[in-house]
Amino acid sequence: MDTNRILSIVSVAVAVIAVFVALEYWALILLVLGLVIGFLNPETDTLKRAAYLVAAIGLPMISGNLGAIPAVGAELGSIIDNLAAVIAGVAIANFVMAVKDRLLPSASE
Fold first, then answer.
1. Dihedral-angle region of residue 71 (phi above 0 means left; psi in -120 to 50 means alpha; beta otherwise)
2. Rounded Cα gap, residues 15 and 107, in angstroms
3. Do 28 and 34 meet the contact criterion of CB atoms below 8 Å apart?
4. Domain residue extents for the chain
5. pLDDT for residue 89
6. Where are the alpha helices (H) located in the chain, listed in sequence order?
7. What is d(CA 80, CA 68) in angstroms, rounded to the nearest whole number?
8. How far is CA 80 from the centre of its chain?
């Protein structure tokens, strides 16, 4: 397994655990996990970068509607909100890397 897959599995596990264990800093932990994933594996494809941005914006909207599902809706919505925090971290890291690539010349130039 590569680091990207391991960090993704850890992120999903932390997102699920965060729903059931009260801790003040879960959002920060999830965001940092997303930043680590984004900086270790930067996306060079513009379409994939755009997909991360759409997911970071759209997932919280979707999770708000899951509360209507009896018994598990609130928990599912919270898990998706937590995953959105991870994806937001990946999107931020990809944005920073894209700006860096535009401003600083690469080693081959």
1. left
2. 37
3. no
4. 3-103
5. 95
6. 3-20, 26-40, 46-65, 73-103
7. 15
8. 10
Work out the percent of the chain whose per-residue pLDDT is above 90. 56
- For the chain, report the end-to-end CA distance as a whole number of angstroms: 33
Q: Residue 84 and residue 43: Cα distance in Å, rounded?
A: 18
Give residue-wise pLDDT tens across range 73-99: 889 989 999 999 999 999 999 999 989
pTM exceeds 0.85? yes
Query: Is there a contact between 41 and 48 (Cβ–Cβ < 8 Å)?
Result: no
Q: Give dist(CA 60, CA 80) in Å, integer.
A: 7
| Cα 58 from chain centroid (whole Å) | 12
- Helix axes of 73-103 and 46-65: crossing angle, nearest 10 degrees: 160
Burial of 53 (0-12, 13-18, 19+ CB in 10 A): middle
> Would you call 59 exposed, middle or buried from its count of C-beta atoms within 10 A (0-12, 13-18, 19+)?
buried
